[in-house]
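Tokens for chain A. Residues wanted.
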């Protein structure tokens, strides 16, 4: 062995050792990570058991499980290709030798097989552990979700004293003096805490920060209000009349107004809370009260902006919904008053929690807020009755009947009724919960309304053929109006579905549908779940569709390039060019299908199962389809007919225009399309005028009088045929004396021409033959047909038998 070979072998061995060491270290790190996750899962199981009645604790534990799930999914995703690579290397090495048969193999190969088998066992063990931990976390998450829903149901259906119960109010009256004292102690303690925390410097910083917030907030809000940009429409008398705002302009204005009304209060409230928290000015008992109060102020501001932007009570032209002025004003007032009532209730509830108020006081406060909210809704709904005709100044502003507005009114009446009944029967928690959901659903629905309008305008209309972007796309890309319209409709529908799914998740979240559960379901659909060894994954399905579409598009582009650019410049006939292009199209579709199937995880054994299922289907119902498909392949390979051939099928004939997978398209001479299944060309009889060549025979029968010279007639016919430029010189034209007829001597002129000129050539020859025979005074006799003369029927009175009958009657 040379020195160079020994060095190469030593280097290879060193690299192998290093790779093995790195692989072993990576496997060790993964196992340590899995052991740590197993310990954390055990700790979380104990937390869940300890917090079975604590919804907040369960929610916190549920949030801690999400990072572990992500780690385990990443581990599975990382180890799966490693395992596949190990299996591929073992397949290349093949099975080990059979010692019983005395088989042996190379020592290096045996050592490599042992290492790969060990790596396979280790990797499979890691994957099994990771998947087991993932299942344990999913089960724990499901348990937490079920327990939280149970707690929610139990809390909503917990019955207390009715708001109309004298006992409840008697207990409240007895407890109020003590609650007021607790309230005084609470604020006194907070004041003492503020005095202890605020020295001269900190007090100055706090005052400066509050002043800065005030200076920024008030002018900032006024400045942002300038961007509402909603001029009054119609304008005042004498001013130019602009176009009425479009739906797109109204939706953008509604979004601007909502953001403008919300951004400053939200920033100010968040700044105040963070400032107080940073300076340690909030005690533990006051934290909930301060947080609820500031959050409530931001919520009221957001609701005010949303109602003003959508309903436009002071500017009907910019109103996003179809409502009259009075209805819009009342609903806008409700949208501003109802959140204020809820915020007051939540603030009082947080305050009662801070002073550890007795149960009757808490129940009474929540019941009063729920009752006030229900009465506010009912008062607004009663005011939404249809206006008398005399009070409606503009018929276009008439209140819409039916539709979404009626549905909202019915739901609002039902919600208010449930709140009243719940409070009256003592289910105060249920009434309060319904009240919270009304404002939550209203805000989600308002934002959804604005976003759907924007999606319709920017996607549905914007990229349609009528939109500006759509027109540019048609000019730049060359898409047709129909295709672009379909794209805009599909895109608009897709974004609408996304918005409605997001809104549904937000709407159902307070009812126990945790976002983590929803996202877990979506993740399972997107990234796959295994059924029977096959991973069903929406992301893989989408990727497979994209790959198939890409392969199909490339195939179509190559096929068009062959048909339009390359093949026409070759010496191949039209039929062969079509066969080549069609075959390449089939090949490209097969390759695209295989790529898509491999992305979905279908291996060769699964293809075998599918083929077996297809064979059963073929036996039952797909036999004719497969027969036509195979026949189409035979037509392309054997080429008994080709594109451009003149064929006769049964009583129909025409030119072959296209040979498809299932059928062949023929254009008849009447310009009609004849669709013939491919199997008929293989199993039936077909006449192809152009199978071998394009030569066609023209046969013209001629009858001349008995006084004519046959040789002269033959010469005239041959001269006419030879003088025609469309008659082929080979085979030479011939004239045959066919028979001596009853009234004429019958000849036939037989010549050959191109198949496309048969009819014009025959017509031209007949014109010339008639002309030359007339010029030579050769008679063309007309056929003689015998005629039978019939006697006209006599009158009824002229019949002899009837005359005799009448004579005998008169004699009698």
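Reply:
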């Amino acid at each position: 062995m040379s020195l160079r070979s020994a060095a190469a072998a030593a280097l290879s061995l060193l690299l192998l050792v290093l790779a093995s060491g790195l692989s072993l270290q990576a496997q060790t790190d993964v196992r340590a990570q899995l052991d740590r996750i197993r310990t954390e899962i055990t700790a979380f199981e104990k937390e869940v058991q300890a917090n079975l009645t604590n919804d907040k604790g369960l929610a916190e534990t549920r949030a801690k499980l999400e990072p572990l799930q992500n780690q385990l999914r990443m581990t599975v995703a990382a180890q799966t290709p490693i395992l596949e690579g190990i299996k591929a290397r073992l397949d290349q090495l093949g099975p080990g030798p059979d010692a019983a048969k005395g088989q042996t193999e190379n020592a290096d190969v045996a050592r490599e097989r042992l290492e790969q088998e060990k790596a396979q066992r280790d990797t499979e063990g890691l994957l099994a552990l990771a998947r087991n931990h993932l299942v344990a976390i999913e089960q724990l998450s499901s348990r937490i979700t079920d327990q939280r829903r149970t707690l929610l149901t139990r809390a909503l259906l917990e019955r207390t004293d009715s708001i109309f119960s004298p006992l409840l109010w008697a207990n409240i009256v007895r407890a109020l003096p003590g609650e007021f004292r607790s309230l005084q102690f609470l604020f006194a303690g907070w004041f003492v805490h503020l005095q202890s925390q605020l020295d001269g410097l900190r007090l100055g910083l706090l005052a400066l920060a509050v002043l800065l917030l005030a200076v920024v907030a008030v002018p900032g809000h006024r400045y942002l209000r300038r961007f509402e940009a909603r001029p009054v429409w119609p304008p005042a008398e004498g001013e130019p009349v602009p176009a009425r705002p479009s739906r797109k302009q109204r939706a953008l204005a509604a979004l601007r107004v909502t953001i403008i009304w919300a951004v400053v209060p939200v920033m100010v409230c968040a700044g105040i809370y963070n400032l107080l928290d940073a300076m340690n000015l909030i005690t533990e008992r006051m934290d909930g009260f301060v947080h609820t109060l500031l959050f409530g102020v931001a919520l009221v501001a957001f609701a005010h902006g949303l109602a003003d932007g959508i309903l436009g009570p002071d500017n009907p032209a910019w109103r996003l919904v179809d409502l009259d002025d009075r209805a819009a004003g009342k609903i806008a007032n409700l949208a501003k008053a109802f959140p204020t009532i809820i915020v007051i209730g939540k603030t009082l509830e947080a305050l009662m929690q801070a002073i550890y108020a007795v149960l009757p006081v808490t129940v009474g406060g929540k019941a009063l807020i729920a009752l006030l909210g229900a009465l506010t809704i009912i008062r607004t709904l009663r005011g939404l009755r249809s206006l008398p005709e005399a009070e409606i100044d503009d018929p276009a502003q008439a209140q819409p009947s039916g539709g979404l507005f009626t549905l909202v009114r019915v739901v609002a009446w039902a919600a208010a009724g449930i709140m009243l009944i719940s409070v009256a029967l003592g289910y105060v928690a249920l009434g309060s919960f319904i009240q919270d959901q009304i404002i939550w659903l209203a805000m989600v629905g308002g934002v959804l309304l604005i976003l759907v309008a924007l999606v319709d305008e920017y996607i549905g209309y914007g990229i349609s053929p009528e939109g500006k972007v759509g027109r540019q796309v048609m000019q730049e890309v060359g898409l047709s109006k129909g295709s672009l319209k379909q794209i805009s409709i599909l895109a608009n529908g897709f974004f609408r579905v996304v918005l409605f799914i997001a809104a549904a998740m937000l709407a159902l979240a307070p009812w126990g549908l945790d976002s983590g559960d929803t996202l877990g379901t979506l993740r399972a659909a997107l990234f796959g779940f295994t059924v029977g060894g096959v991973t069903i994954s929406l992301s893989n399905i989408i990727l497979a569709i994209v790959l198939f579409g890409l392969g199909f598009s490339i195939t179509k582009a190559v096929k068009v390039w062959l048909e339009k650019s390359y093949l026409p410049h070759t010496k191949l006939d039209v039929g062969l060019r079509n066969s080549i292009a069609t075959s390449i199209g089939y090949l490209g579709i097969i390759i695209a299908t295989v790529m898509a199937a491999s992305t979905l995880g279908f291996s060769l054994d699964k293809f075998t199962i599918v083929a077996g299922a297809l064979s059963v289907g073929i036996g039952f119902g797909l036999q004719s389809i497969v027969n036509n498909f195979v026949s189409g392949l035979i037509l392309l390979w054997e080429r008994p007919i080709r594109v451009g051939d003149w064929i006769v099928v049964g009583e129909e004939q025409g030119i072959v225009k296209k040979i498809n997978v299932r059928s062949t398209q023929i254009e008849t001479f009447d310009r009609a399309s004849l669709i013939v299944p491919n199997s008929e060309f293989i199993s039936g009889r077909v006449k192809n005028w152009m199978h071998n060549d394009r030569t066609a025979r023209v046969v013209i029968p001629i009858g001349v009088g008995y006084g004519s010279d046959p040789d002269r007639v033959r010469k005239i016919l041959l001269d006419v045929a030879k003088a025609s430029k469309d008659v082929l010189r080979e085979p030479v034209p011939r004239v045959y004396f066919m028979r001596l007829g009853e009234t004429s001597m019958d000849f036939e002129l037989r010549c050959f021409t191109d198949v496309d000129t048969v009819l014009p050539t025959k017509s031209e020859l007949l014109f010339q033959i008639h002309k030359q025979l007339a010029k030579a005074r050769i008679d063309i006799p007309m056929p003689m047909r015998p005629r039978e003369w019939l006697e006209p029927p006599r009158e009824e009175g002229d019949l002899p038998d009837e005359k005799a009958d009448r004579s005998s009657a008169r004699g009698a």
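The longest helix spans residues 107-156. The radius of gyration is 46 Å.
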